[in-house]
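Contributing new complexes? Match this layout with 5-O-phosphono-beta-D-ribofuranosylamine.
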Amino acid sequence: LRVVVLISGRGSNLQSLLDAAAGGGLPVDIRAVISNRPGVQGLERARAAGVEAVTLDHRAYAGREDFDAALIAAIDRHEPGLVVLAGFMRILTPAFCAHYAGRLLNIHPSLLPKFRGVHTHERALAEGETEHGASIHFVTAELDGGPVFLQARVPVLPGDDAGTLAARVLEQEHRLYPLAIRWFAEGRVRQDGDRVRFDGALL
Ligand code: GRF
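Output block (do not edit by hand):
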């Protein structure tokens, strides 16, 4: 399965995918990593793994549609069977989401549908949540609204701040994403409209 990974920064989720692919546990060929921001650590991680590292600076484009069209062109050069958003901090246009419907995944640091959007750890703490976590979902035009098919839960502990909670969630993210992508590569999980099918069963 050919995969292109989109990032915007640190790339720790990317690293877990690179490691899993190199270790043989994840049957994918990561063809390229594309960042909308130049000079970020994730690009270095890609280069260190011998993966093509591309910067497509969104500031160089007039509007969202122009950027997304350029992004589609850069992605489709690799003819991926799956596009993975990993710390990608751009809202994608409906046209982009439609183009990759059924083969576009994202990881979000909350137990969706709770806490869509940003600053999820701060918001979970502010709400007094006793547990939090991460969700993997197919991406649709609705921000963080696509069908979820894998989640990890972590406890919120006394004395947690956003940093300690985020670290606990991130640890699970790094376990979750390689598993989710392996299932997709094995044909076990598929998007079916606004639902997900796992081994044929509708979730
Ligand atoms: C993580 O919290 C992830 O859930 C979110 O972006 C953050 C940064 O991830 N998608 P990474 O280290 O850049 O993979």
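Reviewers usually confirm one structural detail per submission. For this one: Residues 7 and 88 are 4 Å apart (CA to CA).
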